[in-house]
Structures are given as structure tokens and as C-alpha cells.
TrEMBL record:
Gene Ontology molecular functions: ATP binding; hydrolase activity; nucleic acid binding; RNA helicase activity
Biased composition (Basic and acidic residues): 22-43
Chain span(s) of sequence motif Q motif: 82-110
Any Pfam family: DEAD
Catalytic activity entry: ATP + H2O = ADP + phosphate + H(+)
Native species: Ixodes ricinus (Common tick)
Biased composition regions of type Gly residues, renumbered to the chain: 478-496, 507-517
UniProt protein name: RNA helicase
Amino acid sequence: GGGGGGGSRDDQRGGGGGGGNWDRRNGGRRNYDGDEDWTRPLPRDDRIERELFSQGHTGINFEKYEDIPVEATGEDAAKHINSFDECSLTEIIRVNIELAHYTGPTPVQKHAIPIILAKRDLMACAQTGSGKTAAFLVPILNQVFEDGPPKNVPQQPHRYSSRPKQYPLALILSPTRELACQIYEEACKFAYRSRVRPCVVYGGADPMQQMKDLDRGCHLLVATPGRLVDMMERGKVSLELVRYLVLDEADRMLDMGFEPDVRCLVGHPTMPAKGSRQTLMFSATFPEAIQMLAREFLVDSVMLSVGILGAANSDVKQAIYQVTQFDKRNKLLEILGEEGSDRVMVFVEKKKTADFLAAFISQKGIKTTSIHGDRYQRQREEALADFRRGTCPVIVATAVAARGLDIKDVRHVVNYDLPQSVDEYVHRVGRTGRVGNLGKASSFYDSEANGALARPLIKILSESQQEVPEWLENEAKYGGGGGGGGGGGFGGGGGAKSFNSDSWGSSSGGGGGGGGFSQPVAEEEDWG
């Protein structure tokens, strides 16, 4: 069902007193009672608490995080914190941090939380799995609780309108449905026992269900760009009261062709101008197109870089094998045999390869499932559920279908087909070894197809203290059509990156310019 995780969870948003309480504050002006004290926690609810917090949090080994370099640049950037107690957080947030088993802040949280609490705009480069979602949700929700209900809510067209327009105070834009739902789940945790109600809207799900959910009130909205534009056109959402705007995985939004939608939203006549809203951008990589957006959308900002910019995670042991197209299948079986086949994610370039390979591995006695753009939403969700539960310990995925998926505890990523761009390689490798856990990544390098990646791969391997095979050095020296590797830099497509070929199933070169975006955008809106 739409509306993020179906009806059963509706009454836990923002948590608090179960369905009955929400009925007394369901949407519209009644949602903003100007005299209410939003810092005061509502009563606990054991059932909701169990549902929200039973997942627990990864047993993070923070010690090994201490040596991650973090650099903050900007006038008077706020001093970093070493524990959550160092910044004066509201009781609601403090208790929810404990319930979520966050023992201490990760490097990105140490720096981002005080910067955001100081009301500064932020451009943060942090690798996947660094704890960045909590890094922006904790300070934003804390400020929303402290600010309390807004005084200047516009009148609804009809006083007793049954379908009121919502005026969220915080807006978080996310490239995909999966990432949006993941942020929303986290927001529900931190908003538990508060008067703040998070909502999520995304493409590829029933808009009526999502509208029904919005009607019950929405103070913090997580959205994919296309669906939000749609909700605004339907008169369901207004941006007039947005005080906090977050662009999460901004590089990915551009890669997926969402730049026009993002510009339409940020530049919308109802969106408060920069300076009268606080804007935060998060991105795993920092290409020129993202730097341009940051210059346009942020004012007097702090730049935060965690770890090496554009480097792969050093918690991941990366191995590159020289394999021809024809030997890949056998090499994969050999690796699954040696390394074990538990929670392995295999990336391929083409949709048909995904199905073929999943069938091939299954025939060899290892249960395998696959996700790609041609599978129905329901099939994709089943495949993901099978992988998460361990029913199918191996999943084969195309890059587009896997964008933004938060799949916990992937032990091993295999690049059966290497992507055209080294940024995409970093994204994929970032799926394992998340937040202090060790992971593995194995990649099949075919000289015929991957020559342009030799040099950038060597750079990534060296930066994350990995072994560089001698044959790869030779490839970079003698073969391998020049270093490029960035998928032809920025083609058309509104400045979006043009490494279409890995994701969109053509096996040709770097995907010239923006022309290749028409199909994936449609496919991705369906997914995200």
C-alpha cells in the first residue's frame, strides 16, 4: 500500500498515542494549535515503541571511526561534538536516541548536528552508510519541536474542508522510493511521542492512499521529486511554511534526470527564498554539477567532507579480477563457492542478464532472486523481502533498480559487469561494510569493455588502502583507452551526468549526453 508501509503503521507517525490521538489532530489548520508546547513528550505506547525500535541499530564499532578525516570549511563553522549530550537536545529527541540504541555520534553526525543547530546551510559529502540520515533528522526535528507550531498558517479555502492542503515545515527530497521510505522510518523514530507527524510520498504507488495519509496532517514530508510536483499540482501540499529543506543523495538525483523537478521545487514561487529557509545538501560525490547547485541553493554555507571525497569505503576489502565476458559465470560460481553465498549482491548491466544469471546460479543449488526495471513493483518488493529474510541469499540487480535501496548487512558486492563510471563503482562498493562493519567487493574487469576504468580504479584502490594488481597497472599504462572513467563527464540532460550505459542496459560507450535519459526517468519514477 501507499503512504509508506501501509495502513497498520499510520497511527505511529510522530508516534504517540495511537490512532485515537491522531484523530484529534488530523490535518489542516487544526494541526497547528498556536499555543501548544511541542517540546513536551506525549505518553509512551508500548506497541508503537516495539514496532519502531525493535529493529535496533547496527552494533557499530565506533572506535575504528575515530581516524576518519573530517573537514569543515566555512566562516565560523560550529565546533564538533563528541557525544549527543554536548548539544542541548529536547527530552523527546534524547530519549528517542537512546531507544534507537545510538551509543555515540558517527563522524558526519559529530560535525553536521552542531552546524545545523547553529542554523547554517550545509553541503556535506559523506559516503553511504555514514549515519547521515540521523545527522539531519535529529537537529531538524529538535528545532521544529523548539520552534513549536507556526503562527502564520494560511487559511484553508473552506473552513471545514475535508481535504485540506498541508503545509510541511521540513521537506526532504530523495531520489528513490526505497531511500524515501528509509528516511521516513527514521523520522518516525525520532518523532515518536511528539506532536510532529512525518509523511512520505513517492512514485510507483497509489496516490490516493498517499493523499489520504497527508490529510491526517503532515509537518515533515519526505518525497521523491516527481511525486511531490504531482501532489502540489493536485493542491495537496504547499511549500509556503518550509523552514528546512534537505536534498539527500543529490548526485544521484541528477544522475537519474531529476534536475528539472528539483529546480522546479526549489525555485517554486511558494518556496521561501534561500536565507529564509535552511538548506542542507548531502551527496556521496561532489562533481561540478553538484557544486553548481550548491552555489545556487545555499547561502553562507559550511562545506563538510567526511572521509576521502569520492573514495570507496576503506572498511571494504576490494578485489579486482581480470575476466573475459565468457568466463564471468564460472568465476562467479568459484567466488560463491570459496567466499560463501550469504547475502551477496551481484550487479549486472542488462535486465536480461539479471534474469539469466539468477536462473543459472539457482540451477547450481544456490537460491537466487533478481530485481530490474521490467519487474513489477510487487515482484521487486518480494525479491527484496526474500533477500532480506535470507530465503534467497543472493540477489542479482541492475544499477537503476538498486539505486537507493537500503539493504542491511550485504556481506559481499560482486560487480559482474563494472559500471561505466567510477562514481557508480563507489556507490556500489558502499553497499557493504556500512557503518563500521567489514565487507567485501569483487569486480570482474574485462579489458575489452572496461579499459577506460583502469586509471580511476587504481586511484580509488590506492586511496582506500587496497592492493592494486600488477596487471591493472599495466592496463592503465598500455591499454585501456585513457583514464576518463567518468562516463564522458557531463553531457546534456540539464547537467546530469551521462554515465547512462551501465544503468540503462546499452553496452555502448559513455552514453552521449542527456538523450539517454528519457527511458530511465520513466522507469525510475515508476520505481522511485
